[in-house]
Design goal:
By secondary structure, the chain is an alpha+beta fold. It is built from four helices and 16 strands. InterPro entries: Anthracycline_SecMetBiosynth, Glyas_Bleomycin-R_OHBP_Dase, Glyas_Fos-R_dOase_dom, VOC_core.
């Protein structure tokens, strides 16, 4: 099992979360599709839910927020930082728009939110007691994130200057794409790609969850009230499908190539 203890290296995707329109409905959906269990953080934290796989945190879910019920129903990706104040300074200097200035989340950590120059929202997480993902690349856990951007070169410049990421270009004719690796990490942590013509969802960070069987998982999405506009496709990395949850939120499901055994969470 791909567990993780301690802080994630700066620049690593370390957490994803979503604000939903109906907490009970969304919990039931993701429990059915990904096998998640949930822990309630209690009234002091607005009943924020941590989603769990095998007892380890994999994602966060918030109920509707009073006064901001129209907050976008999208998965937000957070990148790890050793100092969220420094990240805020670098992000602003590099042209980011501030959504939320750095603030404390009790003893769990410090957080900030921005929109990058290409228009994609993202967060920074400075871990204290809450390190982010406690498990990854397992059934029900995040396996990959991608930034979709209208300007690949500008995005690489921005995230390099803010988080110190390095990039490996994997572009093919007509499609620009690069993987990124945090400083000191041994392997890529995610990717950055061109926004293709006809993509009406706009610039965004996209989240992919690992599943044991993509086709079966897509059927669970449909049975639980989500949607699947397209059939799963085979790629070099594995078989993948992009689907949508109860609030129309986009995410992807992937079974890695090579027949990896991603067992159901206990």
């Amino acid at each position: 099992m791909a567990t993780h203890d301690g802080r994630w290296p700066a620049g690593s995707p370390c957490w994803v979360e979503i604000t939903v329109g109906d907490l009970e409905r969304s919990q039931a959906f993701y429990a059915a599709v990904l096998g998640w269990a949930f822990e309630d953080s209690g009234p002091d934290y607005g009943h924020y839910r941590n989603a769990l796989v095998a007892g380890r945190r994999v994602a966060g879910m918030s109920p509707p927020l009073e006064g901001v019920e129209d907050w976008p129903k999208v998965w937000t990706t957070y990148l790890a930082t050793d100092d969220v104040e420094v990240t805020a300074e670098r992000a602003s200097a590099a042209g980011a728009q501030v959504v939320m200035e750095p603030m404390d989340i009790a003893a769990f950590g410090r957080v900030g939110l921005w929109v990058d120059p290409g228009g994609a929202a993202f967060g920074g997480w400075e871990a204290l007691e809450h390190n982010g993902f406690g498990i990854h690349d397992e059934h029900g856990a995040v396996s990959w994130v991608d930034l979709v951007t209208p300007d690949l070169r500008a995005a690489k410049t921005f995230y390099r200057s803010v988080f110190g990421l390095s990039f490996e270009d994997l572009s093919v004719p007509g499609i620009g794409y690069a993987t990124f690796t945090p400083a000191g990490a041994a392997w890529p942590a995610g990717g950055v790609g061109d926004q293709v013509d006809g993509d009406v969802a706009g610039p965004r960070w996209c989240v992919t969850f690992a599943v044991d069987d993509v086709d079966a998982a897509v059927q669970r999405v449909l049975d639980a009230g989500g949607s699947a506009p397209n059939d799963p496709v085979d790629t070099e990395s594995g078989r993948i499908a992009t689907v949508a949850g109860p609030d129309g939120e986009e995410f992807s499901l992937m079974t890695p190539s090579g027949g990896a055994d991603l067992s159901e969470p206990g």
